[in-house]
Queue: 3 jobs
Job 1
Amino acid sequence: MDMDPALWAKMHGATTHFPIAMIFGACLCDTIALCFWHKPVASALRSAGKYAAIIAALGSLPAVISGLVMTHGDMLGEDAPLRWHHIFVWPAFALMISVAVWRGLTREQVSRRGYAGYVGVICVLTALIAITGYWGGELLQTFP
Amino acid sequence: MKPLNVLLTSAASGAAALAAAYALSVAIHRQAAAHSHELPPYVPPAAIASVPPAVLAKTGEKLYFENCAHCHGVDAHGDEGPDLHDIWVSNRRIATVVKRGIKGEMPTFATKLNDTDIAGLIAYIRTLH
């Protein structure tokens, strides 16, 4: 049986949206937790943000692997939309792993100031992911 | 664990993830270059079947200087366009790019070069190491 030539493209599409949603969710939970730091709900939101960030990092691994296989290991790309997609995805991927490790190691023992810094970083990460997704959409227009 | 150590470990993890992705990309790239997954595979025109590769590459070299050297450099090490030495793309991909161009980056040569010319160019590009 012949393998579907678009299999890895389909796998990439199927695996990318989960970490994207998780990071957006983590950013939302952490931002609200920072705004309502002294309220009882803040603790639950921080936990939700933490696990969402860790799950997003784990979910990004199949997304990265399927993307690399799909492009035959092309880390940057020679055409404009793919290149822009990759320029934003690699810092986002590294940041996503760093953020997950940081959250896992700190175990909620962090000051409000430190947490505010973290929220700033995760907002930057969310923006990077959003721009990566935009260029991913542009790629679909180029290679429908 | 001290906060600074946590920060350094996190940054190192991100860098390690990038390094792992790079190592994986190199491994996949080498495999893909050896066994192109592009379908359908590139089929050279029948007219060149009897032409020795060295002659074909010589024809391609002439066409390269006339059409490509302006952007890719006379030594093909790149100028406005990329370096063409040891390129890790399939013959089919080279033929497609030459024919269609790349939007905003490279013009199309579909009206200027025929399939035989492109086969010559591919043969020449494959000699660049």
Note: Chain B has a mean pLDDT of 86.
Job 2
Amino acid sequence: MSAAAPILDVQDLRTHFFTQDGVTRAVDGVSFTLAPGETLGIVGESGCGKSVTALSILRLLPPRLSRIVGGRVVFEGADLVTLDEAAMREIRGNRIAMIFQEPMTSLNPVLTIGAQIAEAVRIHQGASRKDALARAVEMLKLVRIPDAERRVGDYPHQFSGGMRQRVMIAMALSCNPRLLLADEPTTALDVTVQKQILRLMLELKERIGSAVILITHDLGVIAETARRVVVMYAGRVVEQAEVTALFDAPLHPYTRGLMASIPRLKHNRAKRLAEIPGIVPDLRTPIPGCAFAPRCPLATGRCREAAPPLEDQGGGHLAACWEAGRA
Amino acid sequence: MSGSVAVETPLIPVRGGLARFARRNPTIVLGGTMLLLMVCVALFAPWISGDPFTVSPADRLRPPSFADFFAAGKIDRFGTDNLGRDIFARTIHGTRISLIVGIAVACLATLIGLAIGLAAGYFRLLDAIVMRVMDALMAIPSILLAIALVALTGGGIAIVIFAITVPDIPRVVRLVRSIVLTVRERPYIDAAISVGSPSRKIILRHILPSTVGPLIVQATYLCASAILVEAGLSFLGAGVPPEIPTWGNMIAQSRLFLARAPWTIFAPGACLALVVLSINLLGDGLRDRLDPRLARRM
């Protein structure tokens, strides 16, 4: 799609969890690329592997419970899956930064927020305590925390949820990362604050020039922010397209189901809100065919037997569906 | 709140603050004051009392007398023992041994246990090995270990401290490890890893502070139990050599004359009980103060 060499190239990523009840295929062959400066949205319902994909990129998953069993995550020419831990630490927070879902618990309650923002700066730029703290103040100003000089010495409990997410953004962007992974950055916030935070994040991303992977279950957020969208279901990518193409003409029945279940202001109240029947499949048993087949209105015998490949359906609009043509 | 008041009248709010602290934390203040008194007694023992070693056969087993209590050279304030030694002086000097052993064991066990516990809790590979070693250590009875060591080396305060510390270390390790295991799952640890913090930094900066509160409380209990164990070892003759005045030694010697001279056991016994009580009070108060959730539940 993009002519420039991708900054991130994820190919057939497979991350499995090894539990007592068996192997859970949380991410099962995910591929996508990301151009420098691009904003990519990943959508899907809870448990579809969005977060695990992001955590796999940074290799932040619990080591004894989970393993990346296959695939490559090429970032700036290096495969992050096989990189050693020291090199990985060099990348974390410096080249790739992450914003977590829970701003209330993602900050250490016993350290000042200044110390926490300064931590990345000290580690990666070898800055002195004083310089790092000055950088922290600068970052707090950038995320528009009023009275930054004074607040830099405050503790997380002295901040509201939205303010804490600003602090998390300041922390993530303090080393000017090339890639920012934002895992449901606004889910825990009030609706009124969500928009401010998203706008701030995208504005700063433009200024720094980093690429962003925005993970969310909120299609509205995607529509406003992302340029390209990856739709995930049951650990697999089911559709990938430019944001306008996806919203105008969703090809995969799952995406269509998602769109249909968005409540509209003009919605006829007498009519029941559309939903996708059934539940997400159990990822502990291998699924031979299309993972969505049991819930799909268009499913045929072929869908249950063979998994459809993610194929270009025209104009760079990819969908993994045997019946993508049938609308 | 108090800061703004302090600007106007610097002295009174400080006292007001202390009074309020005492009202809210009576056990800390009571235990702390008693312990502080004991520490002072231990520090100034030679100035407070006479010589604990002077043997005076003519004065054997004299009962306590309160006449001329503050007269210099008086040896029977608390009576004398079977060798005519001043029980008051021996009790006062015994405070030193008890506190030294208690504090040394608490510090050593806490520091060593903290280091091992942090490592075991954070590095899962180490955990299985370290915890099995700790289980083995915990199975060693300190009294038997001390008797064996004293038999081998001839005894002394360092041996006593070592013998009591070794079986205490696993208690600290278990406590620290359990805290590390819960704290390491918190999202802010993932956040710290995600900015590239090395393990050393995560352990020392992000996890260590959470262990300090419980450890202080644990240390007071270790200190109290170490004082009791030391007294027990001395009583059994497996501790500090008998001529050195320790409460355990004194109790051991008085046992033979208990029917004729019950006062010989009273002073060291009471001091032992008081010092352990004061440390436990302090520990309980600190626990309530450092973990408010626990205090409310009780």
Note: The longest strand of chain A covers residues 22-34.
Job 3
Amino acid sequence: MTVKYWKYSLLIILIPQLIFAQFYFFGRNKVQYEKFNWKVLRTEHFNIYYYDDFEEFAEIGAKFAEEAYEEYKVKFNHIITVKIPLIFYNTHIHFQQTNITPGFIPEGVGGFFEFMKGRIVIPYLGSLASFKHVIRHELVHVFMTNKIFNILSDHRIDNTRLPPLWFVEGLAEYWSFDWDTQSEMVMRDLVLNGNFVTLENLDYVYGYIIYKEGQKFLEFVSQTYGEDKILKIMENFWRFTTFKEVLEFTLGDKFADIDNLWTFSMRQKYFPLYQGNYPHFVKARKLTEKGFNFDPAYYERDGNKEIYFIGNHNGYSSVFKMKYDIESDEYSKAEVLIEGERNSEFESFHLLENSLGLSNSGLLAFVTKSMGRDVIHLYSIKDDEITRTLSFDEMITIRAPNFSSDGNTLVFTATDKKGYSDLYTFNFINNDLLRLTNDYYQDIDPVFNKDNSKIIFASDRTAGEYQQKFNLFEYDLNTKQIDYLTYINGNISTPAFSLDFKELYFTCDYDGTYNIWRMNYDQNKQENITRLTNFVTSVYSFSFADDKNIITSAFEKFSFQFYNLNLENLSNSQNLIVRNEFSKARSKWITDKIHLPAEQDRLVYEREYTLDYAVGQLITDPVYGSRGGALLTLSDLLGDDRYLFFIYNTAEYQSEILKNFNVAITRINLSKRTNYGYGVFHYSGRRYDIRESNVYFYERVFGGYFEMYYPFSSFQRLEASLSIANSDKDVDGAILPRKALMVSNSLSFVHDNSLWASSGPIDGSRFRLLLGYTSDVKFSNLNYFSFIVDYRHYFRLGLRSTVAARAAFFANHGKEARRYFAGGSWDLRGWPRWSIRGEKLWISSVELRFPLIDQLYIKFPVFGISFFDVRGAVFFDAGSAWDKDYKETLGSVGFGIRINLFNALTLRYDMGKKIEKNFSQFQPRLFYQFFFGWDF
Amino acid sequence: MKKLFAFILFVAVTYSCSTPFILKNVRLDNDGIYTYGKNENRNFYYDVAISEKLTLKWSASTNGSQPNTSVLILNNYVVISDLSGRIYAFDRENGKLIGYEKYSGAVSTAPIINSLRIYFILNEKLEPYSTFKMFDFVNNKILAEDKINGAVTNEMLRLDEGIVVLTDRGELIKYNYVGYRDYTVNFKTSTYCNPAANEKFIAFGTVKGELVILNKKDGTVYYKEKIAGPIESGFTFDNHLIYFGDSNGVLYAFDSDKKNIIWQFNTGAKIVATPVYDNSKIIVGNLSGKIVAVDKKSGSKIWIRNTMGIFNTTPLLTKTFLVQPDFNKKVYLINASIGVIADTLEFDRRVKLTPVINDGILFLGADRGQINAYQTFEVK
């Protein structure tokens, strides 16, 4: 997996997660807003899948991939003998709709390699350099996993092992691209602020740190022990059971010595930086402490002085404002102005991207994803309301909105269906949308000049010696000419004019990290640019508060906080002056594409099905004899169309074998917004239904069903299902069998915008309303309706604590209505599991969830084991179940602890007292209950 | 009692399934191939003129795969090691398994046969060392063992006086045929290179780009200079000339007597195979799938062939054809004079073994231990 935007990877670690259970009782929806017309480009080593207008980038990507293949073939001394599926999406928004992985894809993921079928899935993020990097990164994964698989197979050793993630991702970074500003900044921050993770502990860390530390470690190995050792680490992987031993053997040193040497080399490299560079808090005043804060925009009106910004303080990204008076240096706690990521209108924000602008008249423009594309919301500070939302059919992603000084025009960048990331203006007077550029160069961060005749922007259109570096350009709206404003060997972003428009300020990574630079701005070409700050880590965005104060969003100690930087406090002696080298500039650069004969090109994709999963089982027990079955699933290459086959035999006697085949075949189609599934089934045998009384019965049931899911947005959906089943049921002891031809249908509305912590939801709400009807259309032996309403709300108390409340009512009413059940760790705690049964059931719970232990490390003599995120809960449950007449109300109170194991399973241990006798008294003793499962 | 009986039966059946490595009635003659590269020069040239016609004679397989090594031929036996720690003997005529020896680890190089002994190195599993073993194949018995620090993936060198082992960590050990060390020289530099020798010298390269030439007799350093990029290719001696390639793709001809480079030729990508030569030309393939033939005297290009493959295996050169295995599941029969591909054998697995011809039979090998024997036909 490639994490493109590292800041997002921090969010992945630190804030709660979304749950992707689209087809469970709750869960958010992965919405296929678009119907993609997939095509295939077949090259020598790849099958490249793309759609619609993305052809040009697919051909460019194919060229990158083939070049990388040739390079890695030599580097790994290895070859992949099958064609590698490479699947391109033209934007991250489309990429998030992929069905190749069932989970949600966060903003920061720039691509992934899916190990099971060897698929590489990559979105185009606007920059060809980044596109090339991600392709190369994922291809390193392909070569490495295949090489190691073959090495283990060659030695006849279990071939499912892989090196630790930090090596896997570190290698992919190390062999896919050069060390860059972002990597440097992260390592500086880790080492200088005491967050550097030693090799010993790197196995326990996730996220962007392992990418960069892994990359840096391999660089260290190459420099200290030799580049050849990297391949040898893989080639020696078969020899030992632990990676630690592999490293020791290959490098010829003790693990602790390697670790110490590496740590020393990092300190030796980064500690001297403090001689010339300084942290943000030394030269600027810190204004925020919490969460992640970006795009500050300072606004003053009626004596109120405020910073508007986009941030994330609790897991949901929102638009915030905070009072800040520069003169008195007083500021207030930030408050949410527009709460995001809870409804489809503000489905998600693009945090690290420039996505907020402020006009002189107090109109705020900010970008959110809304349904299947980005939109620009215009919010009036004066009226405290959103006055307009701009959406453009041809644009998928939008960034960097900025107003003209008269407020009549908005300039921004957007990505179209081809993948081009270009400049646009929108005029509010005549509602005219104007496209300014139309090419594959990435244009970012546009701003108007003083008289609104020109637009200054950064772009990788730099040609010549410093090709693809982001320099500043000027677009003349009258002549439509683009000219260089700078030409340096560095990357520039976020240009902003001083208040008098005589100087242009921007961030630039010329000497290692993004600092604030300045140049004069007039009619003449400027010879020099000047570095004003020398922070040890980067400034990401900034805005002027007045003529001498800048509000910065800066990276330090793995967080993004605001600082007030007074330009007068900066010493001129540390200024660095760099000359623009315009003589080295050229007009444009061109990238190469793959050229294939016409018949090989642009084939329409036809579904290619391969096996996902197959499992078989044969069991023998003394009561039921031998039984066996198998489950297998198939899906097409894009994961859109899936088939599930299930076969199982429950015969207790040889003569029953044919009669007792349990078979189910299901097809699920996820290719369009409306997902549907249908199938047929035949189940036969003796069963014990926990919803009924404790009796065994024989039932043979066969039929078919159809299900449909229509997501309104990521948060809400409609579900419908219809099934027809013929049932012959012999209840033991009954005189006559019950026959029925059952037709069941149901309609549900589901809402879920919850955020999850390690053991369950901690914020948002979840709701399901279901109406259903089941009847026996042939014999009238069965006839009942169903009603379910289940509402859960999570009242956030802090970043990691919440009060969760649940109220649910379930009812089946009619002839032979099925029973619901409760009791146990999931609902009525303390009561025997599933012991409370009835056709009607209600449950209510209130629970305080809080962090108990962040890490529990148990050291055995030979090895140690860590448990993370041990959570505590104090709960109160109440509920009841009954058939005809209400029986009694039951309840429980108590305390519990939960431990998440590998994000796959949560273990729960509860103790407390049951409330019994119609809620009139506590049981005399404590109950203790151990089970697994997520919190409600 | 039943359990005991079942256990005894299990042991008996298991034992009867394993076939001990015992070779009988063998004699060492001039026709055999007793080491990787035939002799101490590492000469992969066979003085036969084969046609492009090949007929599959038999196919056999081993438990584990082989690295880029070759089979050995001893009378009517084909001997091969594998990466799952086994040494096999097959019948040369029909591929029938004669017997095998099994150890915990990997035998990553071709064994050496001398007299009634097989010498091989076991890369021990779960241990940081390898073991040099002397195996009596008549009595199925290990006669001598010696622990070696680190891994050994470089092919051993069979000299008249003994065996040379070059470890991956740069330690060169000369054993005599009784299994004792004659001398040890430690260069403490990574070496992934199959050494070669002539009458006077042993030569190999290091990943630092050093060419190392030792006096064969006592292991003293005759020459040691950095003259190339990282060296991971095999070495071959042609009288006093040494041919090898480096990781930058440069093929070198070095005069061991004059201690200078005669010529060099850039192939464009890393070379790991051993160059092969006949009377007039040197041929070598690189990892980007290019094969070049260079004039022995001048170092000028004779022909170049580009493929989409990857050449990490040393080919076999005959009077007529170069038999070049391609890791990309092919074996090319290339006209040695003009470089035209005359025929391509397609495999369903990666081809790994250096081809060997013995008495009209061509031996090839591919992934997962596949060994194929082909009948060749001589051109009159």
Note: The first helix of chain A runs from residue 6 to 14.
